[in-house]
Amino acid sequence: MADKLASTAVQKDDLVIPLIDFGPFLSGTPADKHAVAVSITNAFKTSGFFYLKNHGIPPSVVSEVFASSARFFARLQAQKDSLGWTTPQSNRGYVARGREKLSQSDDIAGISAMRAAIPDLKETMEIGREGVEGLPNRWPDHFDDEGKHFKKVMQDFFATCRDLHMQIMHAMALGLGLPDEHFFDEFTDGGDNNLRLLHYPPIPKAVFRDNPGQVRAGEHSDYGSLTLLFQDSRGGLQVRSPRDTFVDATPIPDTIVVNAGDLLARWSNDTIKSTRHRVVEPPSAPEEDDGSDMYPARYSVAYFCNPNMDKLIEALPGTYGEEVGVAKKYPGINSGEYLVQRLTATF
Ligand code: FYU
Ligand code: NI
């Protein structure tokens, strides 16, 4: 049974990323559920990453999100700019190419210099929870019917992904041996998450050849509890291995790449890993024979999950104390304050 639930998706340089079947968690016996929960928790503790299949989100839904995203990025620049991202507190709206530089550094001057020298080659659209006082989403619905359709598609997808976040946290509560499967619900039911649509435009291959260190998105770890990443078939995502190399996380159709964020690592007293990753040019195989001097566009959709903004995040029961022989490593921190601090460093 166990090897039917989890196989290996990526294995290189001591980095092992499993492919986990979520079906038995959603509709199996208690024993099946437990086995999936253990696989997920082990993945979070070792590589910090896993691929999830049979996650319950239909491929047609994901396709519609990608299609709506592509139509959004194809809009006139002036339209997109009129929906511009405003503040880290809001974290909603359109982010033009070169505005965000993902980095692990919290040195703002250093990041600014890097943004100028090797900008991230992407544009994004950030969508937050609806109905938050003073923090409206920047919908394109006043432009045309397509804009209204976009709003509906993204609102529905936001809710779908919020539910999946809660399910994965149920699995983790079981896998960590917490008192009950619903332990995290009071931390995740607010849905203070961020749906990010990403577009990496086509780019001359020469840009990568001529600029050492050029990336599509800089090395970083994610900020919140966990991230659900939907990628197209293009490739370019890389995950940092225990040997400090970067290993391709090759797209697998109809799967979601799930990775733990820094707040979850901190919450788990560092028993869970928030592993660094980046996006580079697509792997070179197609380059040899396609005759083009351009890399094609890449689209992805990241759903960044966070603990409710008003929650205090403190080491989970069982991750510190006499029985485990480890002390609490961090003081408690407010989820919202932590996230705003991280967003302030990169914009
Ligand atoms: N924006 N959360 C993240 C992130 C960007 O983790 C977020 O809201 C990382 O790139
Ligand atoms: Ni990331």
Structure description:
With 347 residues, this protein is α+β, with helices and mostly antiparallel strands. The protein has one domain: B-lactam Antibiotic, Isopenicillin N Synthase, Chain (Jelly Rolls), CATH 2.60.120.330. The protein is 35% helix and 22% strand. It is built from 12 helices and 17 strands. A 9-stranded mixed beta sheet has the order 1-2-3-12-9-15-6-5-4. The structure holds 2,4-dioxo-1,2,3,4-tetrahydropyrimidine-5-carbaldehyde (FYU) and nickel (II) ion (NI). Nickel (II) ion is lined by residues 220, 222, 227, 277.
Quickly list its features.
alpha+beta; four-stranded antiparallel sheet; nine-stranded mixed sheet; binds nickel (II) ion; single chain; 347 residues; binds 2,4-dioxo-1,2,3,4-tetrahydropyrimidine-5-carbaldehyde; Jelly Rolls
CATH homologous superfamily designation:
B-lactam Antibiotic, Isopenicillin N Synthase, Chain
Which sequence of strands runs across the widest sheet? 1-2-3-12-9-15-6-5-4
Major β-sheet, in short? Answer: 9 strands, mixed
Q: Work out the number of β strands.
A: 17
Strand content bin? 15-25%
| Domains, number | 1
Order of helices and strands: HEEHHEHHEHEHHEEHEEEEEHEHEEEEH
Write the layout of secondary structure elements.
Layout: H1 2-5, E1 6-12, E2 15-21, H2 23-27, H3 30-46, E3 49-53, H4 59-73, H5 77-81, E4 93-95, H6 108-117, E5 123-127, H7 145-175, H8 185-188, E6 194-200, E7 203-204, H9 205-210, E8 217-220, E9 226-231, E10 237-240, E11 246-248, E12 256-260, H10 262-267, E13 277-279, H11 285-290, E14 294-295, E15 298-305, E16 312-313, E17 333-334, H12 335-346
Parallel strand pairs: 2-3
Antiparallel strand pairs: 1-2, 3-12, 4-5, 5-6, 6-15, 7-14, 8-13, 9-12, 9-15, 10-11, 10-13, 16-17
Bound molecules: 2,4-dioxo-1,2,3,4-tetrahydropyrimidine-5-carbaldehyde and nickel (II) ion.
2,4-dioxo-1,2,3,4-tetrahydropyrimidine-5-carbaldehyde is lined by residues 91, 102, 194, 220, 222-224, 261, 304.
